[in-house]
Design a protein that fits this description.
Blueprint (H helix, E strand, L loop, with lengths): L1 H15 L1 H12 L10 H21 L6 H6 L1
Helix pairs in contact: 1-2, 1-3, 2-3
């Protein structure tokens, strides 16, 4: 449950502000900070945010088996 909320927050942030999210993670990943990204990276980040949000919302609606169902099997 907490992981889903965290993923939802990350997905919404990435959907709303992909440039800030990508730049934040690239600053952490790159040592010198002198990385030039292609313009399409931000579009892909926004798509990734939408996919994450959709996955969390659909998963929360009971799209799969519940934990009780898998425990019986």
């Amino acid at each position: 449950m907490v992981l889903r909320l965290l993923l939802l927050a990350v997905g919404l942030l990435e959907l709303a502000a992909p440039r800030k999210m990508v730049d934040f993670w690239m600053d952490l990943a790159a040592e010198d900070g002198d990385v030039e990204l292609k313009p399409w990276v931000y579009s892909v980040a926004r798509i990734e945010g939408a996919v994450i949000v959709l996955w969390v919302l659909l998963r929360g609606r009971g799209g799969g088996h519940s934990e009780a169902d898998t425990a019986d099997a």
